[in-house]
């Protein structure tokens, strides 16, 4: 009040400047790393430091196509021989005369049918739901005959192996899959194939989405 009164009387006093608040420095917050989820902090507050991957990715030339893995020439020859043999065992007067090229066409139509999922195989040849890629490749009668006599092993060589009818195919796929380059980190998981037929391999697992079927163990990598 005194300096304001002196200023109004003309004493030449400058007005008192307003006090300037000093800026406080920002608080330094220590970085404790990423914030972990609630469940992670309870059981494992310190994540495991995995070792650095030392492997090498496979070269493009080393990768095999699905055709080379599942339908190579050696297994196609086995299927052709066993199918022709089974047809002769059923009726010697009506040989199948299946060839490798025709078997490839049959397998191609089967894979192509899986993209549509029609409830009946004959619907692919009907006028209302005709699929030209299947009809133009093979006739319906020939397709059904090949399907009827398709075999992978000789029925006269039965043994205690529950997979004797598909043993050559299983051995072939096992050897091919083992040759595929795999990464360093792998995980083994279970897989259920729905199946309700008569088989010693059928299992009942009530905790699975598909309770009844064939249980497989498969690899997965990340």
UniProtKB/TrEMBL annotation:
Provenance organism: Alosa alosa
Biased composition (Acidic residues): 20-30
PiggyBac transposable element-derived protein domain ranges (all copies): 68-219
Protein name, per record: PiggyBac transposable element-derived protein domain-containing protein
Listed PANTHER family: DDE_TNP_1_7 DOMAIN-CONTAINING PROTEIN, PIGGYBAC TRANSPOSABLE ELEMENT-DERIVED PROTEIN 3-LIKE
Region annotated Disordered, chain positions: 9-30
InterPro entries: PGBD (IPR029526)
